Amino acid sequence: MIKRFMLTVVVTLIFSATAFGQSPSDFRFQFENGEIHLTEYNGTETDVIIFATTGIKYIDAFAFTQGSTKITSVVIPDTVTFIGESAFMGNELTNVILPNTITTIERLAFMSNKLTHITIPDSITSIGNFAFARNSIITITAPSGFNFSGFEFGPEGRDFKKLYDENDKKAGTYTLNEDTSTWSFTEK
Fold this sequence. Notes:
Radius of gyration: 17 Å
Strand content: 25-35%
Structural class: alpha/beta
Number of strands: 13
Helix content: 10-25%
CATH topology of one domain: Leucine-rich repeat, LRR (right-handed beta-alpha superhelix)
CATH superfamily of one domain: Ribonuclease Inhibitor
Shape: globular
Order of helices and strands: HEEEEEEEEEEEHEE
Strand order of the largest sheet: 1-2-4-6-8-10
């Protein structure tokens, strides 16, 4: 049964990945307790699509920081629930799509990229310290009722959290006015 499953994953990756310029050898996987972990990306594509057909649940620590390619965008499938520490740190991400299945983003996960906008999915239960630090975030779409206590991305982050709390942790879009360094809120 496991051999058939692994063969299906490999065949699916070969078929899917080559259609987008990525090959199965660009990714390394590990099977742990019956779950699939993406452990490393070694490809040369800068716009990366992680295919849902692989059934990946975890993007492990440092998975996208080990190779020499600096990725600029990533599409994460809705099978993923966990993004590990420093998983995408030090790339050149300007765009990341987080599915509404992510529950945990560990510390430093997206640190030192070029993100300007992030959408925190409703499914999130934990964001580690400095997960989005050293980016240029000016827009945050936030779910309602989340505790952003460990959410730091620079001096502006404290003001964002203050406004979010003042608005009773309402879902909506929070936008930074770069001229005045103040945040505004638009309710969902």
